[in-house]
Amino acid sequence: MDYGSEVKKRFLSPNRAKGLKEDAAGVVSGESADRTLNVWIRFQIQAIDGVICAVRFNVYGCPYTVATVDWVAEWLEGRPTDALLALGMLKRREELGVPVDRLGKLLLIEDAAAVCQEQLERLNMQNGN
Amino acid sequence: MAAKKIYLDYAATTPVDPEVIEVMTQCLGFNGDYANPSSSHGPGRSAKIRIDKARTQIAERIGAETNSIYFTSGATESDNMALIGVMHANKHRGRHLITSTLEHKAILDTAYMLKTQGVDVTFVDHDADGVISPHQLAAEIRDDTVLVSIMHVNNETGVLQDLDLLGAVCRERGVLFHADAAQSIGKVSLNVGDSPVDLVSLTAHKAYGPMGIGAIYIRKGVNITPMIHGGEQEGGYRSGTLATHQIAGFGKAFLLADPDREGPLLAARRDQLWGGLSRIKGASLNGHPTKRSPHVLNVTFAGIEGESLRSALADVAVSAGSACNSNVPDPSHVLRGMGLSDALAASSLRFSVGRFTTEADIDYVLSRVQQEASRLRELASGAPDWTAC
Predict the structure, then answer these.
(1) Domains and CATH numbers, chain B
(2) Is residue A102 one of the residues assigned to a domain?
(3) What is the distance in angstroms between the Cα of A31 and the nearest Cα belonging to chain B?
(4) Which of A14, A35, A38 sits opposite B379 (nearest CB)?
(5) A71 part of a folded domain
């Protein structure tokens, strides 16, 4: 398989692969998986006052999946939390040069992010926000 | 400085041996034996001498009579010739073919094609280690069985089938027996003179010879319908101008490929490799632990995604399955056929050592695999159980 340079770089040295403290303020996690696609993704998101300040992840998947998760984690930091529902995997796939037959794997990234968004809303309700 | 690269994919193909290159070069160019070996003039006869010598070298390597070796473009063509040619020529005897789901695609796809033409195909069962027992085979043979095709050394796992026992079952029942021996030469002994094998597929490029040339051994008396016509070369079995340089190289490669000398050396490198890999968390060997060729190791790394591991080892050439299938993301049909789940089959790598593999190469590969396996396992920390079972 001939991966593009950005995919290779992110796959070999993902920047946000270490975890956040689960009990830290504003930290939630969300995961998605598909056994048939051989993919599992877990995000940890820390959001304060509606802004994502830290994203970490664990992932089991091919280099394209790892690289895209790393890209998403970097992109999300500093954005408002509703960015979790606006990842735009169709566009990201093209930008990163991921083959179209891997799109199913990338859509699982959106699913994991969406779970984080739900968790954040739940957390906000618990905190009376 | 160029990054170090270690080649451990000898089961896919081998570098051409320098002595083979020398012989091939002698058959090229104006001062070489370049003429058409079918020509009756002097240069043609010189080329034919090369062909005859190579044919003898190949026959001697497998204990065959020289005039039972016929050149083809490779083992894939030989496999096609064996299955299609034998089933067609012997259709008066029946329309039943037996093979195994663990075979190379060259056999499987040909079998499936024959099925569309009305041939009844049975896939004989095997145990969890990928070994076929004579009893299992005997149970599948019917009155209308014409041919059994079982590969000698499995290209993905290295598992070795006992051709003597399986062939004896076939011989007793009057059924022809074909073995794809593409992986055998130079690693394990094969003697068709002593063995009840009627057809054998051979190839040069897995024994340090050139790509694009192979052969089929056809025991005298076996009926087979030719597939390629036009020229009557190879006794009419396989027409087409013989490629003198390739055939000369093929012969030299087989002359050099002595399993008694190379086998123990390969086994030592393989055992060195497995000694290190076996200590990696989640690593397990696929295929029978002892009934195997000395050059192939198929290892599952449970909990580590296979494409990622292979990609992370960009400085080590290994395979996630057979080379013919390496670009196809589907898990290995051989590993699936041996009972591995999709996840475990996809988490498996095939390592294959060769003539030029050194102890230092293995040490380097072990350090890299350990490093990347650890990194990817940590990256996947918390993954569900199905990724590891």
Answers:
(1) 6-14+258-379 (3.90.1150.10), 18-256 (3.40.640.10)
(2) yes
(3) 10
(4) A14
(5) yes
